[in-house]
Amino acid sequence: MRGGKAGAEGGARGTGRRRTPERAGPRAARAAGTAGEAGTAGAILRAAERLFGEHGYEGTSVQQLAQLAGVNKALVFYHFGSKQQLFDAVLERYYRAHARAIRQAIRRARGGPRERIHQLLDGYLDFMERHRVYPRLVQQELARRSGRLELIRRNLGELASAVRTLLAGLCPEQGPLAPEHFFASFAGMVVTWFTHAPALGELWARDPLGTAMRRERRAHLHWVVDALLDRLLGERGPHAQRRP
Amino acid sequence: MRGGKAGAEGGARGTGRRRTPERAGPRAARAAGTAGEAGTAGAILRAAERLFGEHGYEGTSVQQLAQLAGVNKALVFYHFGSKQQLFDAVLERYYRAHARAIRQAIRRARGGPRERIHQLLDGYLDFMERHRVYPRLVQQELARRSGRLELIRRNLGELASAVRTLLAGLCPEQGPLAPEHFFASFAGMVVTWFTHAPALGELWARDPLGTAMRRERRAHLHWVVDALLDRLLGERGPHAQRRP
DNA sequence: CATGATGTTGACCAATCGGTCAATAGCCAG
DNA sequence: CTGGCTATTGACCGATTGGTCAACATCATG
Question: How far is B103 from chain A (nearest CA, A)?
Answer without folding.
Answer: 19
